[in-house]
Amino acid sequence: MMKRLLITGAGGNLGRQMRARLGDLAEIVRLADRGNMEPAGENEEVVTCDLGDAEAVSKMVEGCDAIVHFGGQPVEAPWSVVKNANIDGMYNLYEACRIHGCNRVVFASSNHAVGFFRQDEVIDNTIYPKPDGLYGVSKVFGEMIASMYFHKFGIETASVRIGSCFPEPSNHRALSTWLSFDDLERLIRRCLDVPKLGCPVIYGNSANTANFWDNSKVAWLGWKPQDNAEDYRAEVDAAREKPAADAPDVVYQGGGFTADGIHQE
Amino acid sequence: MMKRLLITGAGGNLGRQMRARLGDLAEIVRLADRGNMEPAGENEEVVTCDLGDAEAVSKMVEGCDAIVHFGGQPVEAPWSVVKNANIDGMYNLYEACRIHGCNRVVFASSNHAVGFFRQDEVIDNTIYPKPDGLYGVSKVFGEMIASMYFHKFGIETASVRIGSCFPEPSNHRALSTWLSFDDLERLIRRCLDVPKLGCPVIYGNSANTANFWDNSKVAWLGWKPQDNAEDYRAEVDAAREKPAADAPDVVYQGGGFTADGIHQE
Amino acid sequence: MMKRLLITGAGGNLGRQMRARLGDLAEIVRLADRGNMEPAGENEEVVTCDLGDAEAVSKMVEGCDAIVHFGGQPVEAPWSVVKNANIDGMYNLYEACRIHGCNRVVFASSNHAVGFFRQDEVIDNTIYPKPDGLYGVSKVFGEMIASMYFHKFGIETASVRIGSCFPEPSNHRALSTWLSFDDLERLIRRCLDVPKLGCPVIYGNSANTANFWDNSKVAWLGWKPQDNAEDYRAEVDAAREKPAADAPDVVYQGGGFTADGIHQE
Amino acid sequence: MMKRLLITGAGGNLGRQMRARLGDLAEIVRLADRGNMEPAGENEEVVTCDLGDAEAVSKMVEGCDAIVHFGGQPVEAPWSVVKNANIDGMYNLYEACRIHGCNRVVFASSNHAVGFFRQDEVIDNTIYPKPDGLYGVSKVFGEMIASMYFHKFGIETASVRIGSCFPEPSNHRALSTWLSFDDLERLIRRCLDVPKLGCPVIYGNSANTANFWDNSKVAWLGWKPQDNAEDYRAEVDAAREKPAADAPDVVYQGGGFTADGIHQE
Amino acid sequence: MMKRLLITGAGGNLGRQMRARLGDLAEIVRLADRGNMEPAGENEEVVTCDLGDAEAVSKMVEGCDAIVHFGGQPVEAPWSVVKNANIDGMYNLYEACRIHGCNRVVFASSNHAVGFFRQDEVIDNTIYPKPDGLYGVSKVFGEMIASMYFHKFGIETASVRIGSCFPEPSNHRALSTWLSFDDLERLIRRCLDVPKLGCPVIYGNSANTANFWDNSKVAWLGWKPQDNAEDYRAEVDAAREKPAADAPDVVYQGGGFTADGIHQE
Amino acid sequence: MMKRLLITGAGGNLGRQMRARLGDLAEIVRLADRGNMEPAGENEEVVTCDLGDAEAVSKMVEGCDAIVHFGGQPVEAPWSVVKNANIDGMYNLYEACRIHGCNRVVFASSNHAVGFFRQDEVIDNTIYPKPDGLYGVSKVFGEMIASMYFHKFGIETASVRIGSCFPEPSNHRALSTWLSFDDLERLIRRCLDVPKLGCPVIYGNSANTANFWDNSKVAWLGWKPQDNAEDYRAEVDAAREKPAADAPDVVYQGGGFTADGIHQE
């Protein structure tokens, strides 16, 4: 059991879910976010931190054995926002890891790092990325920071290109990209448990029947998702009109993000 | 013949060389740098511009048909320096291209985007990058910006991962990575001439006998380098002690950069 | 729900099976064959059509939203027979689709398009075909017509290389190639339901333990077969002598077809 | 030296050229075409033959040791024309080979068998074809007939996907696809000389600097083209306006054929 | 049912297990070992044989229809020991097979034939081996003997690179490499039953969630392991300290063997 | 310049050639063979050594900085001969290297390590071997010993799969497999000069127009052969009858070796 686990973005969608599930992994779970979080429970610490603030990030990381990094800007946004949270934020986080000797990170990368691949292409984790916006570019940047700090300093990171992580798949694209909370939890536990993690890129979706992501090259990790978005197809069909054949949600892996312009300040 | 060609980094090593060679490509060649440049000659314009200054970049790009982008921080440096020139700088440049309708760029990326590959691995342009420092990470960031603006807005970029572009190969690693000025010139001409460029990644080295970069997937472009670093092997052997088998210059494609720490401000 | 679905070859083995199962997919199911069919039931239309007769094919296709194309010559035969049904027939069908705006087809291609691959080779849908007779050649021709009409006119086709589609696997080779009627039905439903089909080639066999066909590149489609020929191994072993090691049924994916000569008129 | 070599399409562009060059390969060269040919010279026989006429084809092939098959419809045409010459014609030719024991063929396939690949894709001879019209489909059909007669009966064929075989490259696309007459001659000689030919697919272009076809998998054959369309780039640039970036001649390997409709009778 | 099946190494771990399970495969099961074995039961023959003794091996093989070859030195040992049992032994065995017409062998190769691959690499059966000691080298030698006797004389062998075949996975590495006795039995039965075996290399582990071996290229064989080491993870975690990140058991597929020196006589 | 270079097999075909050429590489060249050699010249030492004699091999290696290992049985032979020279011999050689700290070897492996690949297959150095006899198996064994001593002890070896190394190509197969003495010399010099060699497999043939070996993955080494067997084709055609299509010399890369039986004592 590790001494202190840091969960960033602890006030967000995934952060709240995983906070409720991962408490047994460490003597103390440090929870960080820029904004509101539930007050600290037993064995918890709560820290407010802007990822763009190097000093604050350094303090946040100090004393932690591992990090589950959900923090950062989670969707497309103007450049200054993306840059502060996901560019400066990643640099600050890994500098803090390097300085304080924190050597393992689960990094919430995103399918938007490869959003311009088509949905009828099956890709694995060796492909050259095709980000679908500033947000997607910032996620590739994050993966590259992780790669560089691994090769240079041995800090291990699992870059998880999360698909659609919600209670249920809510549209037709999510029938392929859905990641259940249970499967995410199992993945994080595996990444934190494995003696040697290295720096793998992992697609974060459940065992969906419809699937354009190939995780066969990380089979060694020992994570097999258990849930399947297909169980919700009838519900989605009932709730949503079938998208047109040329809708971005049908053409590209990144869905609607690919059709977005550059967000202005 | 195009109306106006922009060469950034015109005061630097490659910028000065190409300024002297590419004058016939446009009615006017606009030369930009943050620092000193030779005064404008015939058919030339000279512009001073900090790439981190969005407004200045916008003015620099306005009216240009194509860009040869040598500008930016050319070696490892503290984060704020790399970020200003190569992160903000790339965002600013492509926003300016998008706004002013400049649709073709030759971008000086770098072998340091893949510097942690070993020298006994032959890699092509489909591999997932392994940058060897903040500078290398910033070059992958630049490639990703280019990729995204291509898929979203049709702006075409050749990302040239330049090896060692000097008058002659000056050390043993450069016997593999050397790019002659003549071969660089031919490459830029090809990239600006081809009716449809797309967004290829191209390794920038000459036809060196010793070679760990495979450009076979961009054979369609019609660039065949003509020079060969091997012609200088005896000179290099005479001038330089043979490096040790575990020297970074021998082990990794990125050479000494891989052994560098994080440069502090 | 589509207005009118055409099932060709409706009097044949697969046509009869799918007629009984797919009635809910359209307001009207038009059934076509050259020969005898059961009379039209509710919501059914019955059309007699020789695929080699362009005019008749045009009328057959007119008004249809999608086609399940089982029609054509289903086994090796003399050239004039294969040509009429599978060469002229495919040209006529796609011309009719183009003219009448029918944009989705499920085409019953065949494992005999790749029959000369060995059974100890696992092939996916990117391989260059190796047909095992005139019939197999005609099936590749059909796939090529489909490919061309897709790239030129946007007509989408799933070319399903059907293995052995019978109630049960009836010989040792079929333990690998068997496709259950239930799995075929599921596949057709998926191909007709997916918003964007494109022009994939799909191997048509069930989830057989023994398997030389790799559908991983069409995982995005969301079809997972459920049945397994292995459940019938004991039966097959009991009913049939084990074939010799050099029997075509054991050596080649196409089985006995590979040993056939050219059928003469 | 073989006894009798058959050159079909002897009255066409390539047939006339090769007739003038290959006379030393056999005691007698039989020349066949549907239309006009120069009268027979020394050691020559002249035969008129419609490829769609099985009996005539049988007579044409009888007594020949090898065939250089340039015959057939050489560009897009209505279905009945393509079918007669390239579909029936190929069946007739290989039946005649089988019956009369002619075991080696050099078949003029075409780049239009793969015309819908993009010009910025480098393809080798293992790819699944993407024909760009009825003509292209008929050429894949011909390759499949060749493949089947090889695997079933041991008749060996080199399917040469000829690019643009003219005295000089006459447009920008041909700077990639050009095949000089000299290189074609060398290729045919190699295919007829090699003791074991098998059934390879070979891209038929010269050693052009700009090139999207990869023949590395037939390096064993021992054919290295010597000419280079690049030598004509200045001429082409002078004679022809640079095509637009979205012109079919720039986008697709098959050039303008991809933009054609279906030719009607 | 075959007449006589030979199981070598019948006194060892796997030999004893399979002796108890495979009795129904032949009228007589001949059991061989250098050392002690249980006395012959019904339908059994017991033979003592040193594999390095050509004459004894010849007698052992005579009259057998198939061989399950567990015999030989099973772990690292001094050269003379490895050579006698696994080098001379394999030569003797296949010479005996050739002379006596025994045409099918299941050969217990070992994961130590590829022990220097890292555990975070997923390898299939086409890779060039990386043995981790004299024992591993001898196993590649055995595979090569099998390959050569197959191509030259048609003797078929399944080379099974057995992982960790014990009642339960007993350490963390075995959570990936474990092969249950049941899965081994099923594999042997399949290899002896299939009409045409050829000469495949098969990784011998169960359907473990954590897995670095890819058997997809032998899917045609029809062996699907059923057991999963993951079911024992909690037990292993409880019984064993988690290994360090740089422990050979964590870094390399061959585990501790990679850290061994050369055993001296 | 190294102190002492050992050339084994110095009395054989390649050994004599390279003895005459490599004298400048070391202060002393030690020449070893089992049989007759020319007396030691200036800067030479001559040693008689049976490779199967561990003690003799140890003495032979002691004091050497690098080894060019041509020694061993050079063609098919009875098992005891192959075993003594190429099995025991390789073990003895690498044990001596390990004990005496000799860390670089150029090992004359052979095309017979892959002799059962067909001549119409182009293979690179990653393929799983297919040896064509006991000799070929022994050469794979040698490569494996080299691989193991590299991964375990850091001893670097270039395993050169030599084709046909003679003054001129003397038959049709050699038009593909010929390696000129000049090209071999250049290769050995490169392998001994490069600061970090690792453990590559290299195909040893010249820049032959007809070629089934792909060295692209060792391009980093900086060896480009200069000679071309094609220059001798007319001579070979004149001197030798063209082999039949099913002659082993035409079918398999290993040529006639594949048709050999097992040599008996």
TrEMBL record, chains A, B, C, D, E, F:
**Organism encoding this protein:** Psychromarinibacter halotolerans
Q: What Pfam families does the entry give?
A: Epimerase
Keywords for this protein = NAD, Oxidoreductase
The top of its lineage is:
Bacteria, Pseudomonadati, Pseudomonadota, Alphaproteobacteria, Rhodobacterales
Which intervals hold domain NAD-dependent epimerase/dehydratase? 6-166
Recorded hits in InterPro entries, A to Z, give: Epimerase_deHydtase, NAD(P)-bd_dom_sf
State the protein's name: NAD-dependent epimerase/dehydratase family protein
Family note: Belongs to the NAD(P)-dependent epimerase/dehydratase family.
